[in-house]
Amino acid sequence: MNAEACPDLAAARDLLGPQAHWLATGASCVVFTNGPQVARLGLGTYARLRVQVQLQQALAGAGVPVARVLEAGALASGRAYSVEVRLHGDGGAPTGAGWADLGQALQALHALPHSGFGLLEDRPDRLKGQATSAAEGLLTRLSGGWPLTPAPLTEEPLVAAAPDLCAPLARREAALRALPAGRGVVSHTDLHAGQVLWRGGRLAGLLDFGDAAVGPVVWDSASLAFFHGWAASEAAGLPGGRDAALMGVLLAIHRARRARTAGQLARAVTFARMCLTRR
């Protein structure tokens, strides 16, 4: 790839210098690096760099290991960008203390002042959800369907894959509908392994806040459990109990609706079963 053939690379080299090269492309941005730094260039209407920068700066002030923002703004075209210090882990596994570090980092995120509900608006000045009610807020981040909309449970991919789940899910419909009640907290919502860096078993970096949303305090508990297991969520000291399990059910339904492979669908089914047996 060369700068003449790729306008994105040319813009990245303006920000990072001639050593900049492509690193990754995600749903909201394309990422370049020169080694010690990364530049993110927003992509389309889902580019959410302004709110990510705001969150990173707030969390850095609270002592959370997030990428330090060096520069942020808009290119001449109006396209959002940010330049950050590139964080590194050692590829090792977390210790119990590492999970506790992550729990403290998420608690700092949950404590940030905000208004509204749901996926955060992409703005630099304050944290505001896109929706005016908790129930509507869930629909800005999750993929809809039962029980968040009138869609029938029997048409859910999760139930199509595992029909025996239909009855226990139906018995929890009222509880699932009631779950969003309350003010909510700012949550990461997508705590897969690529979002967390470890060094020496301790937390070295919490990444990517593009899907941050205001929702139930147990959202990150369930997200961490989906990707790492309930033992990790408990080791992090995150809120648990019945509400965390119910949030896990909503995530399983969401993941099943988004599944593109048999393995992804099977993972959603397995997690749903785990959540339905928790108390």
TrEMBL record:
Residues 42-233 form the Aminoglycoside phosphotransferase domain. The lineage of its organism: Bacteria, Thermotogati, Deinococcota, Deinococci, Deinococcales. This is Phosphotransferase family protein. Signal peptide: none annotated. It holds the Pfam family APH.
